[in-house]
């Protein structure tokens, strides 16, 4: 019987320690091993980006975004992502410090949250070309569910090209 309950979400991935391509690959594998029918449907290109809004000297980041489907709730999906970060060796030391892997939940369908643990859509994604650019690979119209991020992408891209 067809199964209609799956939800789609976008996860932004960032890494700037160690073998960054491998870190991303391991994150994708870990997401595909999650329960609740979770799987990566589409991977954006990987972009090398300069550190943005960081407190110290850091290596360039490698950023991408993943379109996934899942039966997890938004809260459970975030918990699963935080578990993958820990499993891949992430240690939190300072705010916006360098990291082996960062998995941010940008959108979960049209869901909105404003709790201490989970804010949806992810706060600040509109100011981050390193998130918007790979999201355009996943959604070339600049639209995901109720969210239209095309103009934010175009504005930041134009600034970058000046
Ligand atoms: N949409 C979301 N995606 C990921 N984490 C979130 C989200 N909303 C709230 N959080 C909370 O943010 C906390 C800190 O996340 P993290 O340490 O990855 O922040 P950061 O990546 O350094 O900064 P930023 O959130 O600005 O990218 C997490 O423990 C999580 O509970
Ligand atoms: N280029 C780039 N800069 C960042 C990134 C990131 O993933 N890429 N993540 C941050 C905190 O989440 C802070 N700054």
Automatic annotation (TrEMBL):
- The 7,8-dihydro-6-hydroxymethylpterin-pyrophosphokinase domain sits at 10-140
Which keywords does this Swiss-Prot/TrEMBL entry list? ATP-binding, Folate biosynthesis, Kinase, Nucleotide-binding, Transferase
EC category name? transferase
GO BP = folic acid biosynthetic process; tetrahydrofolate biosynthetic process
User: Reaction catalysed by this chain?
Assistant: 6-hydroxymethyl-7,8-dihydropterin + ATP = (7,8-dihydropterin-6-yl)methyl diphosphate + AMP + H(+)
In which pathway does this enzyme or protein participate? Cofactor biosynthesis; tetrahydrofolate biosynthesis; 2-amino-4-hydroxy-6-hydroxymethyl-7,8-dihydropteridine diphosphate from 7,8-dihydroneopterin triphosphate: step 4/4
GO MF terms held by the record:
2-amino-4-hydroxy-6-hydroxymethyldihydropteridine diphosphokinase activity; ATP binding; kinase activity
Give the residue spans that cross the bilayer.
Answer: none
Write down the EC number. 2.7.6.3
Q: Does the keyword DNA-binding apply?
A: no
Protein name as it appears in the record: 2-amino-4-hydroxy-6-hydroxymethyldihydropteridine diphosphokinase
Source taxonomy: Bacteria, Bacillati, Bacillota, Bacilli, Lactobacillales
């Amino acid at each position: 019987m067809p199964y209609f309950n799956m939800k789609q979400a976008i996860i932004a991935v960032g890494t700037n320690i160690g073998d960054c391509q491998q870190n991303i690959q391991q994150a994708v594998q870990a997401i595909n091993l999650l329960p609740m029918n979770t799987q990566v449907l589409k991977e954006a290109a990987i972009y090398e980006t300069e550190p943005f809004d960081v407190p110290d000297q850091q290596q360039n980041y490698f950023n991408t975004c993943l379109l996934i489907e899942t039966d997890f709730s938004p809260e459970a999906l975030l918990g699963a992502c935080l578990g993958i970060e820990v499993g891949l060796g992430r240690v939190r030391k300072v705010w916006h410090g360098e990291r082996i892997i960062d998995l941010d939940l940008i959108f979960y369908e049209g869901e909105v949250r404003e709790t201490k643990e989970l804010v949806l859509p992810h706060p600040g994604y509109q100011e981050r070309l390193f998130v918007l650019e790979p999201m355009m690979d996943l959604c070339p119209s600049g639209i995901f569910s109720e969210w239209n991020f095309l103009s934010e992408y175009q504005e930041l891209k134009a600034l970058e090209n000046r």
